[in-house]
Amino acid sequence: MENQNLFQVFREHFPSDPALPFLETEEGIVYSYADMDCITGRYANLLQNLQISLGDRVAVQVEKSPEALFLYLACLRAGVIFLPMNPAYREAEVEYLLADAQPSLVLASPMGEKLMAEIAQRRGIKNVLSLGQNGKGSFVERAEGLSEDFDTVKLDAKNDVAAILYTSGTTGRPKGAMLTHRNLATNAEVLHQIWQFNSDDVLLHALPIFHAHGLFVATNTQLMNGGSMLYLNKFDTQKVIEFLPRATVFMGVPTFYTRLLATENFTRESCGNMRLFVSGSAPLLEETFETFQHRTGFTVVERYGMTETVMNTSNPLGGEIAGSVGPALPGIEARVTNEKGDILKSDAIGVLEVRGPNVAKGYWRNEERTRSEFMKDGFFITGDLARIDENDYIWIVGRAKDLIISGGYNVYPKEVELLIDEFDGIRESAVIGLPHPDFGEAVTAVVTQTQGVTKVRESAIIAQVESQLARFKVPKRVFFVEDLPRNSMGKVQKNILRETYAGTFQVN
């Protein structure tokens, strides 16, 4: 049987000359394909020395760096499940993920290693190492001197899990989506095809790599291409403009594009070498789509994906339509259903469901949620409201369960509400997403106060949330009301709150 490991699939597309560049940092450090192969070999041997083997989990909460990317590839080579965590997650968030995933190894930043070790000890996890953004840390030190040769582990691509990404969803605790080697390989292959990648393409990578967008859509597709990437530590408007003349492909969230358009030196000339701009992780406003086209002469290709499925749809090159996320990708089926599960006709709005080789195996150690969201006929219930027009273009019209997407990141309202409700003087809260010109949606809280207490300050609530949750989950505004609007069943009517405060973040 041929080796179905995703790393081996990538290797078959590597350039014939291993001295060609794979990655160049913003400081000008270049790693060739040969360098990448050697480093990932050492890292994979270290994992093996730590007795971490097929199916074990490696949880990673580190800043973006070339070494962090090499670690992901080493985990693939070793058949180990890669579990990235947002560096912004606080102690309670990290502890929940570690308790659920039970990894065999946890990597933290050097500054966070002590706290991570304390969390790991409470959860019975023995191995904790560090990896810094500068490429230093105990993990790298332990790998020095190890053999660069490593036989990539053979596995069953359809069933063996390559990565677990936790998604908040809209109800309950975060769920770990199990993405197999086949899920990731087939998705990268189809994106490579539909976006017409070629060996001369250079990817300008400014996305985080703890997220499916930066790790699987951007990185995996370019690895399937055997091309090179310009690797920025984070999105920085001026850095992106500086590197654009050397790139041909750029992928970002809508926030990236609004910030570029807000900069005078982002011009048609700065995009002269570009071939493709892709946007995802949140809806791209039609105004942004049109302004970008007018400013640069390029059409932003919008696509639609989820943690549980990676990419489902994409506008075809030359067939982009503002506001639509395009038709389903080749090999993927999409349908819209009503609350009874009936399949709806063209242009009828309902819940979007998708089926294909990209759909995750299920949720890690969560059979109940797997059964409720992964249907017996293979379709996955996305929870997004959509319509499919007569040309099979898909239009996302809303989210069925109030998930907020701010700056491309998912925010689970209940998690924020529970924290605000613990605040002295707060009777009840409702967290909603409001249109924001930069973030797409801004997290906003509407609260009621306990009678007879001193008025609570907005800044105090924001500070309380910021001390315990990642910054992208923190409300940008808090509004005080006497009572929250409710329907006849007593359910808070968040649609009314969104209508009431809709213009809060509009630019005059």
Protein architecture, described:
The chain has 508 residues and is of the alpha/beta class. Helix content is 29%, strand content 24%. The strands form 6 sheets. An 8-stranded mixed sheet has the order 2-1-10-9-11-12-13-14. A hairpin with a 4-residue loop joins β1 and β2. It starts with 5 loop residues before the first helix and ends in an 8-residue tail after the last helix.
A few lines on this structure:
The protein has 508 residues and is of the alpha/beta class. The protein has helices at residues 6-11, 33-49, 66-78, 91-101, 113-122, 138-143, 181-194, 212-225, 237-243, 254-261, 286-296, 367-373, 413-421, 458-466, 494-500; strands at 21-25, 30-32, 57-61, 81-84, 105-108, 127-130, 161-167, 175-180, 202-205, 228-231, 249-252, 276-279, 301-306, 310-314, 333-337, 350-355, 362-363, 380-388, 394-399, 404-406, 409-411, 426-436, 440-449, 477-480. The chain is globular.
Element layout with pairings:
Elements: H1 6-11, E1 21-25, E2 30-32, H2 33-49, E3 57-61, H3 66-78, E4 81-84, H4 91-101, E5 105-108, H5 113-122, E6 127-130, H6 138-143, E7 161-167, E8 175-180, H7 181-194, E9 202-205, H8 212-225, E10 228-231, H9 237-243, E11 249-252, H10 254-261, E12 276-279, H11 286-296, E13 301-306, E14 310-314, E15 333-337, E16 350-355, E17 362-363, H12 367-373, E18 380-388, E19 394-399, E20 404-406, E21 409-411, H13 413-421, E22 426-436, E23 440-449, H14 458-466, E24 477-480, H15 494-500
Parallel strand pairs: 1-10, 3-4, 3-5, 5-6, 9-10, 9-11, 11-12, 12-13, 23-24
Antiparallel strand pairs: 1-2, 7-8, 8-17, 13-14, 15-16, 16-18, 18-19, 20-21, 22-23
Helix pairs in contact: 2-3, 4-5, 7-8, 10-11
